[in-house]
Amino acid sequence: MKNKRLNGLGAAAMYVGLKMALEQIELWEIWDYRTAVWRLGAALSILAVLALCFYRAFRLITVFLVVAFQAIADISRYASVILLGGLGDRMLYVWNWCFGHGVIQSENAFRIAVNTGLICEWILEYLAIALLMYLPLKKIVENFHEKEYAIHKTELLFILTPAAVGMLICLLLRIIIVTMEDGFSKTLYQRYPVLNIVLPAILLLSLLSILQGVKLFQDMVYWNREQSGRIILEKQVESLKEHMEEMERVYSGIRSMKHDMKNTLSVIWQLSAGNQAKDNEELNAYLSELSRNFDKLEVRFQTGNTVVDTLLNMKYHEAVRKMPKFGMDVEHLMFPQELHIRSYDIGVILGNALDNGIEACRRMSEKDAHAEVFIRLSSLQKGNLLILKVENSFDGWIARKGQDEFPVTGKVDKNSHGIGLANIKSTAEKYQGAMDFRVEGKVFILSVMMKNEGNLE
Fold this sequence. Notes:
Elements (H helix, E strand, L loop, with lengths): L3 H21 L8 H22 L5 H25 L2 H14 L6 H37 L9 H24 L1 E4 L2 E4 H4 L3 H79 L7 H15 L10 H17 L4 E6 L10 H25 L6 E9 L2 E9 L25 H11 L4 E7 L2 E9 L6
Parallel strand pairs: 3-4
Antiparallel strand pairs: 1-2, 4-5, 5-7, 6-7
Helix pairs in contact: 1-2, 2-3, 3-5, 3-6, 3-8, 4-5, 5-8, 6-8, 8-9, 8-10, 8-11, 8-12, 10-11, 11-12
């Protein structure tokens, strides 16, 4: 179902209906351990069917979810029954005392008091079961935020083991909980009162191990993703360094060659002007075309920062090849004379921002060939703070998933989503800074703030 609330209610209703039907089935006339095993297997099958019908697909992680839910349900039930099971006996003792001392004078009043006590015990037990189920499940939902992560078998075993152990402990209790003594049935914790404390403690510790296993697993996924992002960032910085040095060398050579060639062309033009114009008409046309080609070698963007200038020119020409109508405005992008932020770090921030912006413009132009595609860059110095702002046009569609900090990528490689923004944030934090983004209509605005202080390094 597209509606998540209806989907959840449908799954819950079917689960309750199937569980009620399961309770009515008795394969053996007297209690047998096979009953416990059969019911556990049937309960797991019900959950597996629900997962298959109401959710995306039956994947490896579904095995954990099925076993964990069953384990939490069993642990909640047994812990509640053991902790509150003696409440009825104590209340019955109170009613007997009241009846014996004349506080309750009629059998009818005694019967009402006993039934009321049993109903209260029953309500308290079910409330305790519901509470013990709700809190752990809520915690798992909060911690289990990496839902798209493709879990491996060893990772599945890591988080599945505590849930499976908890479920099997409950199965063991179901088999041995009732014992016979002098021809009468007694529960194990009635025979050994210390188990009233030990058994709930074991069950609650088992429940805690399930929750901690999920949290630890999610932290490991997050940490691995963070580490991958850092490795990518380090490689990106090194690659950018090499690329910028090479590009700067090329641009320096081009500027030097252009200067020399312009002087050479000027001399040739003067020499050719002395002859008859008709004889030199083809030569003049050739020289004019040659001069125009050299004008194209002019560095388009000049902010005063060599690394940034090289990066802007490179990214601009890459974008124009794909989108001829693409525009880039850097008129308000300026840097202070005393810049304590490393140029390569600024390059990482602007490089990732430009990559994201150009990709967004490309998707927009594919949807609407007449749409205006642009990127505007600006900067502002406030005290010791340097603020960089990058605005780009996009199609207006942005998606956030669950508790993810960054928008969902539109690229095919979903595993690398948010890497660019994560690298920008990580670089800004090196300078006690922060990153923020917002949307205004069909314009995505990224703001990065950093401290421009000499003692940060």
